[in-house]
Amino acid sequence: MAEKDFPGWHGTTIIGVKKGGLVVIAGDGQVSLGQTVIKGSARKVRRLTPGGHEIVAGFAGSTADAFTLLERLEAKLEATPGQLARACVELAKDWRTDKYLQKLEAMLIVTDGDGLFVVTGAGDVLEPEHDVTAIGSGGNYALAAARALMESDKTAEDIARIAMGIAADICVYTNGNLTVETISK
Predict the structure, then answer these.
(1) d(Cα 80, Cα 95) in Å, to the nearest integer?
(2) For labeling, which of 3, 11, 20, 33 is most exposed (least CB within 10 Å)?
(3) What global pTM score does this model have?
(4) What is the Cα–Cα distance from 70 to 157, expressed in whole angstroms?
(5) What is the per-residue pLDDT across 89-129, written as a single tens digit (0 to 9) for each?
(6) Which residue of the set 12, 13, 111, 174 is catalytic?
(7) Alpha helices in the chain (DSSP H)
(8) Integer Cα distance of 88 and 78 in angstroms
């Protein structure tokens, strides 16, 4: 099949919510190829412990590419223990300048319970203004829902779950099979 005829992989919504001393990263489980759901229970949110420091990461995009980036992030964190922002910047620099890494098609949301960052292949390391961020096919739906709930008395986990439910109701590339990881500083 020619690349131009390939229907493309879709399917991930990842959200990060920081509230009340906790950070929650939640992701759905759907992977689609064109109009077909290939898998409904993929696990796209992971807990990592490089150098003994806990990190939670969620990824959108190609799974193999995301795992490559997570391995690189772990190596950066082992070289700079406890410095998530610095490790993310170093990863983004490598991703932007390395010819092999430039081809990787994924995005990451990462947290150590204190900082919350989106890392992209364009060299971006973004810290959300409103303590909520989302990526992937249904990311904008989840982001809008979570932003609307941030002033409520709901917990970070409640906000993430409700926002993901709304995204799953709207986006055909998002389902309600969630993986949720919580971390505090």
Answers:
(1) 18
(2) 3
(3) 0.92
(4) 23
(5) 999 888 878 776 777 778 899 999 999 999 987 788 999 99
(6) 12
(7) 63-79, 84-97, 139-149, 156-170
(8) 12
